[in-house]
Write the structure tokens for this entry.
Amino acid sequence: MAILGYASFSDPIGAPTSHAKRSYSMDIRDLRNAPPRSPNDLLGGYVILARTIDKCRADLVGMAGDYHWNCRLATMFFDFKGIAPDMFRARIAEGLTDDEIQAWTNTTGTLRTEDEILAWSYDCRWNTPATTELKAFIERNAREISPNYLYIRSLFELIDIEEGQFTLTAR
């Protein structure tokens, strides 16, 4: 989808540029009609990144629906990489592709080894939530989704089930 808009962003070394009217092209999912990619989808070895890109792109053009691009999951990624959300959003607004965003994240913020990325992605997928609030949120929603109660182990599973990206089967 081609988009015409105003971009305000910083160059790679952080020098601000002026507001410039420019045309850029991005693959944008209309999140009012379909969910973003799963938090499990990998981009550059990172979980969450592809989903965050989808939500940020949709937000930039008013197609995010009920989704919030800078949510708890996105914050997990930004904290791990040491990237400011506004800086990420500015790069998305430039019209970078998924591969370009992935390359940028690999060289921006806290540099991570492949093992660190793998371990972080694993922890995001499988570790139990740290807060009582999040544990209760998952449990409450799991019972709503599956009255006969299917064991849902993580926030990623809950999201995938709610969005129809993962199908429940009877035990």
